[in-house]
Amino acid sequence: MKMWSGRFRQPLDPAFECWQRSFDFDRRLLKYELAASAAHARALKNAGVLSADELISILEGLQKIGESSALSFVEDAEAEDVHHFVEKQLAARIGDVGYKLHSGRSRNEQIATDLRLYVRAAIDVLRKELAEVCGAFVERAERAGSAAMPAYTHLQRAEPVLVAHWLLAYVEMFLRDADRLADCRKRLNVCPLGSGAVAGATLPLDRGFMAEELDFDSPTANSLDATSDRDFALEFVNTLSLLALHLSRWAEEMIIFSTQEFGFVQLPEAYSTGSSAMPQKKNPDLLELVRGKAGRVIGNATALMITLKGLPLAYNKDLQETQQPLFEAVDTALALLPLVAEFMKAVEFDHQRMSDATQSGFMNAWAAATYLVNRGVPSRMAHEQTGKAVKRCVEKNCELQDLTLEELQELNPAFDDNFQDCLKQASVLAIHDVVGGTAPARVQKAIGAAKKKIDSLREEVHAHA
Prior knowledge:
Elements: H1 14-20, H2 23-26, H3 30-46, H4 52-71, H5 82-94, H6 107-144, E1 148-153, E2 156-162, H7 163-188, E3 190-191, H8 207-213, E4 218-219, H9 223-228, H10 231-257, E5 265-266, H11 285-308, H12 323-346, E6 348-349, H13 351-356, H14 365-374, H15 379-396, H16 405-411, H17 419-422, H18 425-430, H19 440-464
Parallel strand pairs: 3-4
Antiparallel strand pairs: 1-2, 5-6
Helix pairs in contact: 3-4, 3-6, 3-8, 4-5, 6-7, 6-12, 6-19, 7-10, 7-19, 10-11, 10-12, 11-12, 14-15
């Protein structure tokens, strides 16, 4: 029996009926549908709609549906959606009293509630996985020790940084993603149950009680908004698109650094494949798929926005189309994060080659200019004179440290015998001695701070478990 067929004189066209069903994808919401239905049933009992025996019968029926679904793949060729499936299953198990469960509620509020519960749970799992990814990056940063590498601007060598400093940059990105997910969780954690189809429930249901039963902070404030709002889904998937973007940036750098031209990274064979034509190849498949799947997540966010942009209040069937982009974005992110964490544990860095790359290309030029500034030369003049020194090196095919003191003093008498010391890698790193800089002591503090943030993230996730 359909949940809505009373006023209809003709059955649905079979092709349309099959096409418009959502059960094939919204059955993943069954766990949340059962939890929300149990809360609604208890509210019906409190409102005098259900007797104590009826409540017990319904709750036991819902529990059995959950138990049976956990043992087998949920299938039903007739169920229109997950709500219809639960109603059918409940009535089949406990008889007509199962139909009482729908008293005073609408599928519009049910799906809004189920999706909030689903997104909330997904956020908790994603934040847990992000903690593991961050932990893997920090562990590699610690192992890198004092190893240095070139940092780039405009994809041109700029200055030396510690390898650990480079890795911690990604930790900062991922921690921001975790914070954004937490922020999204706060906003979505309100309960639509009791909103009815559009104007609010028609029974005196205790909405605060239902919200508390499901660990929501409060009921939603407006029934029109509650049944049509998918901002939480859009905000969530937009946050996932930022996470995917960060993963894609990381993957791109690792791909570049793994080329023979760079040779900074040795790809782990467990996450690479070969060529069917060229025997020598080892291709960065995991990295390329991370980069490619980022486009899928960003596309999901765009699909959600386009679906929602023209919808009048309140519920419209278009909202059914917001579920699959949401589910796909979650599936993609949850598949990526554990693989990225394991890749980072397995990848090898050629620290010697990285360090060697910092020894040429005038990556100590700003340190040279800083040397002059520290000796009283105005910054703009120091920049100009160091630039002229670089120009002379280009003409002579040498590095700054190869210029004689006489050549340097022709540019500025402030150059002295101790100038060569400021050009050494250790000195170049050490002058960036500010919070957030690459000076070794600062990086060690940053590692400690990152560990504390990761521990805090893990504690937050554990609190919601």
